[in-house]
Write a structure and sequence with these properties.
heterodimer, A: 471 residues, alpha+beta, DNA ligase i, domain 1, seven-stranded mixed sheet, seven-stranded antiparallel sheet, 25% strand, B: 326 residues, alpha/beta, Metallo-beta-lactamase, Chain A, Rossmann fold, six-stranded mixed sheet, 23% helix, 26% strand
Chain lengths: 471, 326
């Protein structure tokens, strides 16, 4: 699997301008905010504050104005290279833009000592500089620059340098980065709940449905990250969180954006970091209590429980209260996938399906393999694909399936592996629709793996007919 | 006017006096080969004359089929009254310029060439001649090669950076020429150099023929991720089927000088390393040959001809030597 992401370190660069060109190349090839952040951080560590500020302005706003016309740039290039205008046009046709064409046509540098961004911008903004003075300045600079650096300078002075980054993204480099999200474990079957211990050692809450985000507050800036670590732009939510910034300038929350009476609202689920302290190992009960004291932050109501059977009652009533299920957390639970935090969705539809296809997805940022699993059910005497589930599969389940799947391949279709149809899973979903174009004629919404069912044989799993009867 | 020593026929560049072809396109009885790349050396010729070092290359490429005769650089051979000799072109192993002489009329066919040093090809030797036929792969003034040490510094930093973020480096290079040049240039103190199977093929063939090449590992199905942790792999193309974990592929080529070409390459990463002459070296070479007439082929013929005309030289595209035109 090939990656297109920035290259580190700065390729042995030793001048600010060279570092800037390398940063640009890295940004061009970055697909993910974390790559952008790393590239900007490396750059920032290597240049002075003034140069960094100039780079920030250029990258987020582009060049302010044109001080050299491209006709002037062409004429100066003709002078320096001894080539006429026709040659510039000829090469422009192959290169694609005038800044780079001129950069490549100029004679090789005598030595390497390119001007800084700061000095180029100073030249551009100097009030009393005449065109011929600018020409001399640029011509002298050329003799100390590599083609790639000249290209960037040409873009700046001709006003052709375009913004490539959002300010929010650039500034991420100087802020906290999101931490990995916790994936809650499935709640044991009702008969096995007692194995978790005493109900009094647990906190029971409603399960909030919506868009999961991580709120990262750093230096009075609030950034929302999605579960796949993309930036979520949501001014409404950020406005709600503003009061928090007065309390701390360093905090990370696990939260959910939910719809409430047509308005978006943020509900905090957990606290991961506060004032420079990693909170993930602090007992859940303490984290929750702390969350409740934060201004502008809503948390979910705790549900009074005296016995494990109460949990099932709440689960049965969750939809009536507008929630998706219940969350049961051990008071001592730490914030980790293997911590004692369990969730149970209200599953109006119970489906047992067999795993039939596994696709291994590369370029994963998690230690566990990222896989896409296809589950199938009977349609007559034939197994038909029902749903595909990927990133909601817990790491330990994914690792287990991946290891097993590699050894039990029946057939390959491109990146997809057909596996032996023997492993039966319970699948939950929030809704089932008719989908005449699908082989199974069914479409599941928010399908997720609940648990493996070793007690269900292949001939006992759901059929298209049995699922349709539930509709 | 003297009859031209060479003419362009359907089968390629032909010497009527000597009755031989240079890098012929079709099956002919006698072929003089400048170097082993497939666009210059084709199988099926009656007999081949080339530099000694090209013989193992051709034998490997043609699976041993063919009648091969080798010359050393500078060694003269009289063929039907035409004095023929081969001279260093600096392009790849065994690469040669073909010099032919009849009664003080000297023609030189450059083949592909570069003026930078190469570990397996002696430095290009400019030859005085009346007519010079030159390649023009990079015949536009935008092509000016950076210093090789600078390029390797960048490539090494890229390789090291990839190791730090657990990505395996792959460098895309022609199996014949660029791959061997990289074998010599890559710094083994960073990590081992692995060869992809199709690069390894040529490597083994050259080694078997007694040519000294630096050690390299060969990528096989048994190669483990641990062995590749700090490695760089020389590969002819995108080898997605390898399934060896995260890789970043970069290309080593003269085309990488232009940004749009880099962006069109498989990874957007490229290093400017060429086995051809750049624009300044093309014109330096033409000067040094003192040729009265220059024919341009293989690349930007029209552009180079136009430039040479502007300089007051007699220059023509090679097509002008075509039999059909006369």
């Amino acid at each position: 699997m090939h990656v297109r992401s920035p290259t580190f370190p700065l390729l042995g660069a030793n001048t600010p301008m060279q570092r800037f060109t390398i940063l640009l190349a890295a940004l061009e090839r970055s697909r993910h905010p974390s790559d952008v952040v790393k590239a900007v951080q490396l750059y920032a560590n290597a240049v002075h504050d003034e140069e960094l500020a100039a780079a920030r302005t250029l990258l987020t706003q582009g060049a302010s104005k044109r001080v050299v016309k491209s006709a002037e740039l062409r004429a100066w290039t003709c002078d320096a290279s001894g080539l006429n205008e026709q040659w510039i046009d000829r090469c422009l046709a192959d290169v694609g833009n005038i800044s780079e064409t001129c950069a490549l046509l100029l004679p090789a540098a005598l030595h390497h000592d390119p001007p800084t961004l700061v000095s180029i911008i100073q030249m551009c903004t100097a009030k009393r500089m005449q065109s011929d003075e600018r020409m001399i300045w640029v011509q002298q600079a050329w003799q100390r620059m590599h083609p790639e650096e000249r290209r960037v300078m040409h873009q700046i002075i001709t006003g052709a340098f375009r913004a490539v980054l959002d300010e929010v993204v650039f500034d991420l480099a100087f802020q906290n980065m999101p931490l990995p999200f916790l994936l809650r474990r499935p709640l044991p079957l009702p008969s096995e709940l007692a194995l978790l211990g005493s109900i009094h050692d647990h906190i029971v809450e409603w399960l909030v449905e919506g868009g999961r985000v991580e709120v990262v507050i750093s230096d009075e800036r609030i950034v929302l990250w999605s579960a796949d670590f993309a930036i979520v732009y949501n001014d409404e939510i950020i406005a709600q969180l503003k009061p928090c910034v007065h309390t701390t300038t360093d905090m990370i929350l696990d939260a959910m954006i939910m719809e409430h009476h047509g308005r978006q609202q943020l509900v905090a689920l957990d606290l991961l970091r506060y004032d420079g302290q990693d909170m993930r190992n602090v007992p859940y009960a303490d984290r929750r209590q702390f969350l409740a004291t934060l201004p502008g932050v809503q948390i979910v109501q705790e549900l009074a429980c005296d016995a494990w059977t109460d949990v099932a009652d709440y689960l049965a009533r969750a939809r009536d209260h507008g929630y998706g299920g219940v969350v049961v957390s051990q008071r001592e639970a730490w914030y980790a996938d293997d911590g004692a935090i369990y969730a149970q969705h209200v599953a109006p539809y119970s489906i047992t399906a067999v795993l039939t296809y596994v696709q291994f997805v590369n370029e994963n940022r998690k230690p566990a393999p990222l896989i896409q699993c296809t589950f199938s059910v009977w349609k007559g005497t034939e197994l038909v694909s029902l749903c595909k589930i990927d990133d909601t599969i817990r790491d330990d389940v994914a690792t287990d399936i991946a290891t097993w799947a590699r050894k039990n391949i029946v057939d390959r279709f491109g990146p997809i592996r057909q596996v032996e149809a023997v492993r039966v899973f319970e699948i939950g979903c929030t809704q089932i629709d008719h989908a005449p174009r699908k082989k199974s004629t069914l479409q599941l919404r928010n399908a997720h793996v609940i648990r493996e069912r070793t007690d269900v044989r292949l001939d006992q799993i759901s059929t298209v007919d049995s699922i349709e009867r539930q509709l | 006017m003297k009859a031209p020593l060479l003419q362009l026929t359907e089968a390629g560049l032909y010497c009527p006096r000597g009755d031989f072809y240079i890098d012929p396109l079709k099956t002919v009885p006698r072929a003089v080969i400048t170097h082993g790349h497939s666009d210059h050396a084709r199988p099926g010729m009656g007999a081949y004359l080339c530099h000694h070092d090209s013989i193992p290359v051709l034998q490997h490429r043609f699976r041993g089929r063919g009648l091969f005769d080798g010359l050393s650089y500078g060694e003269r051979r009289v063929v039907n009254g035409v004095t023929l000799s081969l001279h260093p072109a600096g392009h790849i192993i065994g690469s040669a310029q073909v010099r032919i002489e009849v009664d003080d009329d000297v023609w030189v066919v450059s083949g592909d060439y570069k003026r930078q040093p190469d570990p397996l090809a002696p430095l290009f030797e400019p030859l005085r001649c009346n007519v010079f036929i030159t390649e023009s792969t990079f015949g536009l003034p935008i092509f000016q090669w950076p210093n090789v040490e600078e390029v390797m510094k960048k490539m090494h930093a890229w390789w090291q950076g990839n190791i730090e973020r657990n990505v395996i480096s792959m460098i895309q290079a022609y199996p014949l020429g660029k791959a061997q040049r990289l074998l010599f240039l890559l710094d083994r103190s960073i990590g081992p150099v692995f060869l992809h199977a199709s690069v390894a093929d040529m490597y083994m063939a050259l080694r078997a023929s007694g040519i000294k090449l630096p050690d390299a590992e060969i990528l096989t199905a048994a190669t483990t991720a641990e062995q590749l942790r700090t490695a760089i792999i020389i590969t002819p193309g995108i080898a997605d089927s390898l399934n060896i974990g995260l890789t970043e592929i970069a290309m080593a080529s003269g085309w990488m000088a232009v940004r749009s070409m880099r962006q069109r390459s498989s990874s957007g990463m490229g290093f400017v390393l060429s086995d051809h002459i750049d624009w300044p070296d093309l014109h330096r070479t033409i000067e040094e040959t003192e040729a009265e007439t220059v024919y341009i082929t293989h690349g930007y013929e029209d552009d180079v001809v136009r430039y040479l005309h502007e300089q007051g030289r007699d220059a023509r595209p090679l097509a002008h030597l075509s039999v059909a035109r006369r």
